[in-house]
Amino acid sequence: MGNKSSLLLREEEIAQIQEETGFTPKQIERLYSRFTSLDRSDCGTLSREDFLRIPELAINPLCDRIVHSFIADSNDDRVNFRQFMQVLARFRTIKKGKENKLNSREEKLRFAFKMYDLDDDETISRDELLNILHMMVGANISQDQLNSIAERTIVEADQSGSGKITFEDFCKALERTDVEQKMSIRFLN
Amino acid sequence: GGHEVPERYPITSIDFGRVETPFIISVWILFASIAKIGFHMAPKINKVLPESSLLIVVGVIIGLILYMSTQFHVSPLTPNTFFLYLLPPIILDAGYFMPNRLFFDNIGTILLMAVIGTIFNVTTIGGSLYLCGKMGVFNGIETPFLDIFLFASLISAVDPVAVLAVFEEIHVNEILYIVVFGESLLNDAVTVVLYHIFETYHVMEFNDVQVQVQDIVNGVLSFICVAFGGCIIGVVWGFLTGLVTRFTDHVRVIEPIFVFIMAYLAYLNAEIFHWSGILAITFCGITMKNYVEANISHKSHTTIKYALKMLSSSSETIIFMFLGVATVNNNHEWNTWFIILTIVFCSVFRIIGVIILVAMANRFRIHKLSKVDQFVMSYGGLRGAVAFALVLLIDPATVKLQPLFVTTTICVIYFTVFLQGITIKPLVRILNVKRAEKRKPTMNERIHERFIDHMMAGLEDIVGKTGNYNVRDKFKRFDNRFVRPYLIRDLQGAEPKILETYSKLAMKDAMEYMRRNPSTV
Q: Where is the EF-hand domain positioned along the sequence (chain A) (predicted)?
């Protein structure tokens, strides 16, 4: 199967993706074979349903948001291989010396921030935060408690007094976190 | 009984024999504690010498006094007191307060260092000493193969007590700390197995029983038993402790006792089978923590914390002092070349082993271990009381070199605790090793980091790769569905840590408020 899929991926396409994302050709081929195995309808793009068929992902509390972040930028709710790779490029490990634009600390943080920020207004509102908390914490906990947690989180991060978390606040709040390491996947060669 | 019939009723009498044992133990503990206060009141010495080496010095002084004042000289540090009473508190403290996540994130590197690293050290140190013995470097003393490897197996393992004692003071960054410390805890399984293998082969050879291939295969199999058996015993006792504390809400005062007693039973239970007690009690602590903390009261938690700290720090104090006392005795057998070469081989092969194994580990790690990290790792390979207790266990009747081994072990311990212990602080400063910054997580960190965990687990699923996040996610789901409901009294959602952080911060705020406005209380 790996052979067949690599045949379908043209040389210049690999070179282009390599240029854009910084992946090695081996990694691109490997991910392409994964991509084609997810693409059940064999049309070269992935739909929301294709993602939801991954059993582990389907039970992830943030499943909707993760899938959304893949297909948000496309207009027909489908993601092609190049777009797929551009999302994944953010999670490449950062190597000293050769800095790639897509996987910088800021880009990584921006990706996470956008998953909170559903209405794309560059801030995380109280409702957006509550939404996420609800997904993660789940049942067995009172709405009041979640409300006060969200309240406290915003007050703690909000520097400008707007009652919302801006991207700057978000970065500041995660200043001490090793984002470079936490948000990296070691893609196999 | 054989009581003498008193002529008159005595007004008072002296009977030291009745209280001798507890009295002597108490005096030792008192001495060790006073010595500890003394160091902290002398700030200048404290900066230069690490506490562990000061305690050894005090021990040597006491040993000299005892040596000169009494004719019988029995060292108080016997293998039994060490393994049954002094070691468990230190390891439980380490296991219970283990940063679980950090530990399991680095488990690959830790296991590589602990298992392969220790085997590498045993073979290289043992092999080199044996070859040197064959070439007659040690003034022609006879160095049988098995004797040397028995010695190598006990001297090769990095010691958790010494590592903790030195590393707690210097505060290196958390990854470096967990790799060295995790190695020292997990290598116990390898040490125990190799020690027993060479000991048994030695006894067999001594009684003219041929060691066969079957025995070597059995040795490998017993490693699996010792390691996994120890872990499983620990995990089972850990779950049991969680289960018991589920029902303690009406008897809050005995909550801490369950933690101590059940962890200790896990240790003893593993030791019954000669499995690794250190692994058992470590994993017992790691397992029970999450469930116990959710069940017990805030005050019980504080009691557990401080009681564990007190027990482990006094054990550590006593161990180092006893090491000093044990140095002063008549049975020393000095062999300059054997001692020097042991120290040289220990250090050199430690460095070589670290370089090779880190090169292997770095191929799989996201956070690469740098050259400086490797240096601190090799330098942090301290030898300590575990080696000393094991060398005392060797029977001098069958192993003729035992007195030499004891002397050499003491020298190696002194070398690591004094030379490496004293120089590691300035070296860490000169090399500019990243230091640890310990702070409680903020609300934002807690939530966003959890968020990132879920996100990364999802991405790993999409990429089709089984990684750290993926595995942790699966474990958490399993825990939340099948374990927590049975072990925890009041279940609170799937993210207890977020709630915990919230309530801790809220409590802090309340205290702050009360401090500022005392009139409202």
A: 104-139, 145-180
